[in-house]
Amino acid sequence: MRLNIKYIIVSLLMLFVIQGHLKANTIDSLQLVIKNSNDSIEKVNAYFKLAKALQKSDLLKSTSFARNGLRILTNTFYSVEQGKTEVELLILLGRNYTSMGFYNLATDNFIAARDKARQIKLPILEARSLNAIGNIYWFIDDFEKALPYYKSYIKVGQDIQDQQTIETGTMNVGITYLELNQYDSAFLFLSQALKLAERSDLKDFAGLAHMNFGWYLKEIGSLNESLRYYLIAEREYVSYLPAHYVVFLYQALAELNLMLGNLSNAEYYTGKAKKASEDSNSDFLLMYYYDLKYKIDSAKNNKTASLESKIKYLQLAKSIEEEKSKKTQSSIKLLHEIDQKERELTDLKVENEYQKLELQRNRARIAVGIIILAFLLLLVLLIYFAYRLKSKTSRILFKNNLALKEQKEELKTLNEELTTQKEDMYEKNLKLEVTLGQLKDTQKQLIHAEKMASLGVLASGVAHEINNPLNFIKGGIYGLNDYLRENFLQHVEGIKIYTESINEGVERAAEIVKSLSHYSHKSETKITECKIHDIIDNCLNILRNKIEDNIKVEKIYSTSNYFIKCNEGKMHQAVLNILSNAVQAIDGKGDIKIETVAQNKQLQIKISDSGSGISKENLSKIFDPFFTTKDPGEGIGLGLSITYNIIKELNGSIEIDSELLKGTVVKIALPIIEK
Predict the structure, then answer these.
(1) 286 with 319: CB under 8 angstroms?
(2) Can you tell me the mean pLDDT for 254-261?
(3) What is residue 353's predicted lDDT score, i.e. its pLDDT?
């Protein structure tokens, strides 16, 4: 057995050496092609292969070879087939610049690759270029610029029916909308990505689709549903995911459990995130592990441990920032070295041409010497004039060389100044774009706040204006009754039924106005002590025209009208959503029963209806955003989702029991304020 192991190890080492030798031979042979070949296209192909072979081991040489290949293509007429090599060289050079941190140069090369691929009709390379541009804008957090490139990437994939391009593009557009806080658009694309994942053979794509949909649910506040999708990704796809996405998965599971109060689960997934971070050998991922640990230690009120975690997080953050700065400086130096080497190569070519010229001159001198030997007298004169001509020519050449050297130094200085100005302008543009984005977000928030305030003022004004004529009518009824008693006593009993009917109508209208005031005037954030029975009665008043005589409402309230701590407007909204659903579920005649009882420092509210009920397969989805069983145009499926979030904000609970064709029971539990 030991001999077999030794044999295997020796064989692997030999294979490694042979592969390295073959690679070295391949590089040497390609360099010989570049040196000896007179065929421009053959040289370009050799440059491309060299740049690709050295992309991971020597970024400097790889970039230099790619630029040399493109320089030849710029000055060469070539066939459409060779255009593919130009596009691939541009993409390779763009990736090298991305690795160096020169995102502006990388974007220029990817855009040139896209335009060339589109010109020569190579859609798969056009798609690669579009995705690369979108990825750069995503990396620098310019999501609005990334979005159109990802959408174009999808369109190209649809045109050529490339499933992987469609899948990747759909998911990229979804998470870009999520970063832009456009949740409706994000839902459309991320849910489509989930559907594509069901039909795809790519397990890693399916895992990422579940993770990104879980991220969307977390952003809109559906924490339990978010946790469910992340758990599916862990259970079914974790072994197919890249190492850094495994870390992101465990970090998300830890954060969700922490937000839901499950500290033990949060600690478990934080430990797994740490191990995955260490396995991936990434300080960036390990930094977020210590941030998670800090949150958990803080939640457990362990101040010493939380302080240690925070210190380690800050140390890693500082180390990563320093490493990033070093990498940027190294990349600048690397690009400078490439330019310097290319200038040196140009200088060598000029020197070689000069040496050729000198060789030709020497040959001419030998010929002149032979002529002088043959014709001595004539040669004396010729030598004299040749000497004068040589001196004059040397002085001219010396002056020209000095002038050329000075111009070269000036061009070098101007080039460095232009590079510095370009980088300064790029940084200023980035800052201006960030400021503009912040101003746009602030403007949207101000407009939204102004609209909501105007709506509240309008509802309040309408209620006030309706209340005034009701007071006039009621005062007139009292005056009319007094007048009849004084002047027409014998008719008082006869018209009493009419005056009472008018009075009852006025009272009903006043109650509806009062309920509308309660529903519309309350602040979005103000928390007060409210009587739950009054809130239920106000909501029933608002729904009175829908209930009419078809629905019998039975109220069995507890003996005391208990106080709860809530935002009264939101509580009205939650109760009204439940009662509206109950009314809409009853077709024709039916019953609604409302019961309240105090139990274990909580007020239990039970609302039952005899409506159509909910099927078992739909019962588990009723709190999901945008889920509805109503016909199109009758609802968008947000009522119960909003109600669920309002009850959870009050530290309460809500459950729904239902059976198809037999009715529905909604049970709410809210904490009571002790007086």
Answers:
(1) no
(2) 90
(3) 43
Q: Tell me which of 519 and 49 has the higher pLDDT.
A: 49
How many other CB atoms sit within 10 Å of the CB of residue 622? 19
Query: Residue 629, SS3?
Result: coil
**Would you tell me how many other CB atoms lie within 10 Å of the CB of residue 548?**
8
pTM of the model: 0.47
| Beta pairing partners, 565 | 529
Asked if residues 62 and 96 have their Cβ atoms less than 8 Å apart, the reply is: yes
Residue-wise pLDDT for 239-248, tens only, equals 998 888 888 8
- 523's tokens: 């602040």
Q: Judge whether 576 and 539 are in contact, CB under 8 Å.
A: yes
Cβ–Cβ under 8 Å, residues 190 and 173:
no
Which SS3 state, helix, strand or coil, does residue 594 take? strand
pLDDT in tens, 641-659: 888 888 998 899 999 999 8
Write the DSSP assignment of 314-364 as a string of letters: HHHHHHHHHHHHHHHHHHHHHHHHHHHHHHHHHHHHHHHHHHHHHHHHHHH
Token pair 């087939």 is found at 81
d(CA 393, CA 391): 5
Tell me which residue of 211, 282, 291, 212 sits closest to 244, measured CA to CA.
Answer: 282
Q: Is 663 exposed, middle or buried (0-12, 13-18, 19+ CB in 10 A)?
A: buried
Least Cα distance to 519 among 580, 445, 562 occurs for 580
Both tokens assigned to 594: 């409302």
Q: Are 321 and 337 in contact (CB under 8 A)?
A: no
Nearest Cα to 306, choosing from 293, 317, 319? 293
pLDDT above 80 (res 135): yes
For tokens 């009175």, the residue is 544
As given in the structure block, the two tokens for residue 117 are 């691929």
Question: Nearest Cα to 250, choosing from 280, 226, 275?
Answer: 275
- 585 vs 480: CA distance, rounded Å: 44
- Using alpha carbons only, give the angle 511, 517, 520 rounded to the nearest 5 degrees: 140
What is the Cα–Cα distance from 603 to 652, expressed in whole angstroms?
10
How far CA 260 is from CA of 223, 225, 257, 496, 584, in Å, comes to 7, 12, 5, 62, 33
**Which residues does 118 contact at the CB level (< 8 Å), separation at least 6?**
126
For residue 415, what is the enclosing H or E element? helix 376-487
